[in-house]
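FIELD: query
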Amino acid sequence: MIGRLIVDRIVDRFDLCPWSTVSGRAIAPGPVRSPLYTPEERRRRDQTPWTTVQGVLAPLQFVVFLISLVLVLRFLGTGEGHAAAAASVVVKTGALYAIMITGAIWEKIVFGRYLFARAFFWEDVFSILVLALHTAYLVALFAGFGTAQDQMLLALAAYAAYAINAAQFLLKLREARMEAQWPRARSGAAGLAQ
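FIELD: result
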């Protein structure tokens, strides 16, 4: 019995199917997760132009990241193209600062605080690490700390942290989309039950 409850909780955590009763699984009572956005927060999110700004900056930053990653890996592999790789990391860091500043403004408008809102607490914590690693790269580059290879390895560490953080935000975006579909799925299931 206890083993089944544990397995059910694990499956429920990863199973995002809104039609669990149709698939043969009844929705088991358990802890109710609070929604990512309250109705008022969702309204503010949908009305602020900063949502669009974030929607534009995020993929733009990702493209800059991919280009820079290729240049950094090329330098580390061949020893050539240090200037291009270094410049690309500076541009990537600038894009990161832009998305962090505008993201903090967005978070203030939607949640009433600049950072560490309940819904994005762990993403923000990890974002600070990403920002610290990128800033450490800039300090190393402009102060001349370490060799060019050491600096690029630091940039690579910053990029690994960025990739993890980007995945966190993509999962949060997916959660928000799934959450937005739940009312429709529930009303559709209620209509089928009648």
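FIELD: remark
Residues 130 and 160 are 9 Å apart (CA to CA).
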